[in-house]
Amino acid sequence: MIDIHKLKAFVAVVEESNISRAAVRLNMQQPPLTRIVKSLEDELEAKLLNRLPRGVEATEAGKALYQEALTILAHAQAIPKRVQNISQGIEGQINIGFTNSVGLHSFLPALLRNFREAFSAVSIQLEEDGSSSLIDAVINDKNDIAFLRKPAPIGLGLTSLHVLDEPLIVALPNNHPLASGHHQIHLLDLEPFDFVLYRRLAGQDLFDNILASCYQAGFSPKIIQEAPRLTSSLNLIAAGIGLSIVPESIKDFWNKQIVYKALKADIPCIAPIYAVYKDNASNARLNHILDLLQI
Fold it and tell me: In angstroms, rounded to a whole number, what is the distance separating the alpha carbons of residues 48 and 92?
C-alpha cells in the first residue's frame, strides 16, 4: 500500500518538473524528497521520472501514477468533510418504515418532501410492512424510525411520539340504506350490517382500533370478508359486499360507487399515528426527522 504522503510528494515533483522547487513547495529538503521518489520507484518496480539537465519529467508509468495519485489525494481530502457531514446528518441514508394505512395519509409524503428539501444529500429508504415487523426493524437498527397506528410496546427500549389523530369514517356502497343524506352515522347504527375489514395480519393496529371502537359502542361487527390491503377493501365495498370503517385519508383514493360518512360515537373514533424510534442522540438524521415532525 503506497503511503499517501509519498503520493503527495510525487505529485509536487511532477507538477514542478523540478525536485528542488518541489522541495520548497513541500517545505522540506531536497535529499529526503529524492529518496521518496526513489522509494516509490523501488516499490512499484518502475522508472517514474526521467532526469533532464534542468529538471525532471514523468515517464509513461510516472504519468499514470500521477493521474491515479490526483484521484486518491482528492478522495482523501474529501473524507474529513464527508465524515463530518454524515455525523451532522446532512449526508448518508435514513431508513423509514410505515404501515399501509399510514402510507395513505398526506402527512408522510409532506414530511418526506420537507426532509428532502432540507437534506438533499441524504437518501431515503422506505419500507412498508406490518407493525410487528417494523418494530423489530427499529429494534435491530434496520429502520431508523417507523410510523404506526399505535405506540410501541413498553419494555423494548423504544420511544413513541404521537404525531396526529385521524378520524375514522364509514365507507358504504352507494346503494346502501345508510348512504343517503348528509347526516353523520352513529356507530351503533352499523351493528346490523355486514363489514369488510383490512386483514388483521396486514394491519393489526388499525384492525384492533376499529374493533375496539365497535366494542365501546356496544356491539361486535359482523365481518364477512377481510381484504389483504386497505385499498383493496374499497373494491369489495364498491361491489356491495359490505361496509367498512376506514381512516379519513382513504377517501382521497376512491370515491366511485362509495359514499363516505362521518361517524358519531360517545367516544371519538380515531386512528392515531405514532413515530416509533430508538432515542439515540448520535443519530443526527433521525433527529432531523423528529425536528420536522414537531415544527
Answer: 39
